[in-house]
């Protein structure tokens, strides 16, 4: 082995760098490669798998490769959206880790020229009774709320789940959506030689240095040592930055734009140059600093927050600076795009790095060995419901409903402002969030989904189920899908069994996206999510964006007293269910295979049911099964429900296209006509009291 510090690079990668340069890299250059070739920046382990995703479609305006994907909603407008992870930083410093995750995804949306209008947070923690989980959960929720509330972007939905697999490595995935005029979209590929590179925003400090490399490694037991690698956020500066950049854009002064996220100035400028098939010179002396005696690599790799890099025509700098001054932000020329394949950093009159821009931006792909695990599934030694009388369904229902996994989460989302900007028509606590786009007189829906337990028990089926679950949520509300963003959270790909699971999950997701006409337009990959306590479950998270043909949507709660209850869909599986986890102590596969004809039929008829106003309310049957869907449908309502008959599988089975509908008596025949030929069963009625009973 080599004694030289490779800063996280593999020895083979270092040798490839030497070969590509024809010389030894100096220390600054080696540090640049260590972040640009990190898993976080390069996706070197997942690029081949990501190529399986369908990325084009009827509504796709911009797909992967830009800072965010964009779907066309008509009237010359688009919705830009993306999801990102901030898992490792949140495990170390939960408040700032979560806050800067929100800030970073907002800037990704801003980078395509969109105004951020909504965000969602998808959180996974260890058992809530654990002391560390309490600390992490409190900090993450405070970070999400404090940043989102202050920056003026509503948090309109999300999810919070618990499992022992996340005790040492929580997951914090943040999604943001923005509204953009399609003729003002900013492309990451539009910079050209002669453009100057302008930093706008906050000053640069030492926070977050090498954060990209940190996010590409496993969490070790000494997480306190990693605190300098967690960025510090200022939502008020972010709010000024949003308004400043949108004003500059509105005046037509921006050629291209990048968020300074992972790897800071280096990543943003290298990406601008490489995507333009050009190079860049960076003048580190010109970078506004908030700390003295910063070394060249510290300036280049700092991940200080609330900064954007603009490529503009040099003649427009005066006007850009005047706008930045108006908003009280730093504004400096820190480089330029050049007509050769070089990436040059200068500091105090010296060249401190001189590399090929394209070489720096193109890490070699990594092909990890693949091996199917001898056994799939997860065992839970502490079975909380082992002593339950399983012959009494109501006792099992009461037990599951009391678990933190399924408890009312209003205490979390009530800490978030979901009404700022006044677009939110349906907010947190519902399967979908619905926003009114007044500029287009149109409703859009956002739906998040994840099912790590099915992914652990049957990875391919879990990938399919994750995608299908989000689309079903849209459909039951009455929306058709426009596109999807994904965050792939997995443990180390270097373990052959892990990489097999990763591959199968992605293949399942890709097939579902193709069959259900919902392309992936943006996303993120987060690997090495594990600690000394073990690896996380395979956890893909998706957020789908949908639209409505009219101004009506179907709510998920609030049945009326005269309503009849119908379950549509086939009997579901218990294999990866909450019942198996909490009552029997083990989940395993195989899970029932998905029938895409059934899925498409379900989506079509669910949308029709909502459009024709044939139900008072409707809800997908997903995690927790029919029993938990019924409880959620009745929560906060004037009336309760009575569910007739049914065994354990009927009440607690999960997966597949299934929904519970509360249907007015007068509309029953028309409802049944819409669902003719699809499994449908009357299963109960609405009760006058507020209880949910299982007879």
From TrEMBL:
The active site is at residues 40, 86. The gene is purL. Belongs to the FGAMS family. Pathway: Purine metabolism; IMP biosynthesis via de novo pathway; 5-amino-1-(5-phospho-D-ribosyl)imidazole from N(2)-formyl-N(1)-(5-phospho-D-ribosyl)glycinamide: step 1/2. Substrate binds at residues 85-88, 107, 231, 303-305, 526. Pfam families: AIRS, AIRS_C, FGAR-AT_linker. Mg(2+) 2 binds at residues 108, 259. It comes from Acetomicrobium thermoterrenum DSM 13490. ATP binds at residues 43, 82, 486, 523. Part of the phosphoribosylformylglycinamidine synthase complex involved in the purines biosynthetic pathway. Catalyzes the ATP-dependent conversion of formylglycinamide ribonucleotide (FGAR) and glutamine to yield formylglycinamidine ribonucleotide (FGAM) and glutamate. The FGAM synthase complex is composed of three subunits. PurQ produces an ammonia molecule by converting glutamine to glutamate. PurL transfers the ammonia molecule to FGAR to form FGAM in an ATP-dependent manner. This is Phosphoribosylformylglycinamidine synthase subunit PurL. Residues 65-180, 444-547 form the PurM-like N-terminal domain. GO terms for biological process: 'de novo' IMP biosynthetic process. It is found in: Cytoplasm. Keywords: ATP-binding, Cytoplasm, Ligase, Magnesium, Metal-binding, Nucleotide-binding, Purine biosynthesis. Residues 7-44 form the Phosphoribosylformylglycinamidine synthase linker domain. It is an enzyme of class 6 (ligase).
């Amino acid at each position: 082995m080599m004694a030289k510090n490779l800063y996280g690079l593999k020895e083979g990668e270092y040798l490839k760098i030497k070969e590509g340069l024809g010389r030894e890299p100096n220390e600054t250059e080696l540090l640049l490669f260590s972040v640009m070739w990190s898993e976080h920046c390069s996706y070197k382990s997942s690029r081949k798998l990501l190529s399986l995703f369908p990325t084009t479609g009827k509504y796709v305006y911009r797909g992967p490769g830009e800072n965010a994907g964009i779907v066309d909603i008509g009237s010359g407008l688009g919705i830009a959206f993306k999801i990102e992870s901030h898992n490792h930083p949140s495990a170390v410093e939960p408040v700032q880790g979560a806050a800067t995750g929100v800030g970073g995804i907002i800037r990704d949306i801003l980078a395509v020229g969109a105004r951020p209008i909504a965000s969602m947070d998808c959180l996974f923690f260890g058992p809530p009774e654990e002391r560390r989980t309490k600390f992490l959960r409190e900090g993450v929720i405070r970070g999400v709320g404090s940043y989102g509330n202050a920056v003026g972007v509503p948090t309109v939905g999300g999810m919070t789940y618990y499992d022992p697999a996340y005790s040492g490595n929580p997951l914090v995935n943040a999604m943001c959506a923005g509204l953009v005029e399609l003729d003002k979209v900013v492309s990451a590929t539009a910079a050209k030689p002669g453009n100057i590179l302008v930093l706008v925003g906050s000053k640069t400090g030492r926070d977050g240095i090498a954060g990209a490399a940190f996010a590409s490694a496993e969490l070790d037991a000494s997480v306190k040592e990693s605190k300098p690698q967690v960025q510090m956020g200022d939502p008020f500066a972010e709010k000024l930055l949003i308004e400043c950049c949108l004003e500059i854009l509105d005046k037509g002064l921006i050629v291209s734009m990048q968020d300074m996220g992972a790897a800071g100035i280096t990543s943003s400028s290298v990406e601008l140059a490489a995507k333009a098939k050009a190079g860049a010179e960076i003048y580190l002396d010109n970078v506004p600093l908030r700390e003295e005696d910063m070394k060249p690599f510290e300036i280049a790799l700092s991940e200080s927050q609330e900064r954007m890099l603009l490529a503009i025509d040099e003649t427009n700098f005066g006007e850009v600076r005047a706008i930045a001054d108006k908003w009280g932000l730093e504004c400096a020329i820190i480089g330029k795009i050049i007509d050769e394949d070089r990436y040059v950093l200068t500091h105090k009159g010296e060249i401190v790095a001189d590399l090929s821009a394209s070489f720096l931006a193109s890490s070699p792909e990594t092909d990890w060995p693949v091996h199917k695990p001898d056994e799939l599934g997860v065992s839970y030694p502490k079975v909380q419901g082992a002593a339950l009388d399983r012959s009494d369904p109501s006792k099992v229902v009461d037990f599951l409903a009391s678990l933190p996994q399924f408890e009312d989460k209003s205490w979390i989302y009530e800490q978030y402002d979901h009404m700022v900007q006044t677009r939110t028509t349906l907010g947190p606590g519902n399967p979908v969030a619905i926003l009114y786009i007044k500029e287009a007189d149109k409703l859009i829906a956002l739906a998040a989904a994840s099912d790590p337990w099915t992914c652990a028990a049957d990875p391919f089926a879990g990938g399919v189920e994750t995608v299908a679950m989000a689309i079903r949520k849209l459909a039951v509300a009455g929306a058709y899908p426009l596109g999807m963003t994904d965050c792939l959270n997995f443990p180390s790909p270097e373990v052959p069994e892990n990489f097999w699971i990763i591959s199968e999950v992605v293949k399942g997701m890709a097939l579902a996206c193709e069959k259900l006409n919902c392309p992936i337009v943006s996303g993120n990959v987060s690997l090495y999510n594990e600690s000394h306590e073990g690896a996380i479950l395979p956890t893909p998270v998706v957020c789908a964006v949908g639209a409505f043909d009219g101004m009506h949507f179907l709510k998920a709660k609030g049945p009326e007293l005269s309503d009849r209850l119908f379950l549509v869909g086939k009997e579901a599986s218990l294999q990866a269910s909450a019942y198996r986890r909490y009552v029997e102590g083990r989940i395993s596969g195989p899970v029932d295979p998905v029938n895409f004809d059934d899925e498409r039929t379900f989506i079509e008829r669910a949308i029709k049911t909502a459009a024709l106003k044939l139900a008072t309310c409707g809800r997908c049957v997903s995690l927790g099964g029919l029993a938990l869907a019924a409880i959620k449908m009745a929560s906060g309502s004037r009336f309760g429900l009575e569910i007739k008959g049914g065994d354990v599988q009927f009440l607690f089975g999960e997966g597949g296209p299934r929904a519970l509908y509360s249907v007015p008596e007068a509309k029953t025949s028309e409802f049944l006509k819409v669902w003719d030929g699809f499994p449908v069963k009357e299963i109960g009625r609405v009760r006058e009291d507020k209880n949910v009973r299982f007879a």
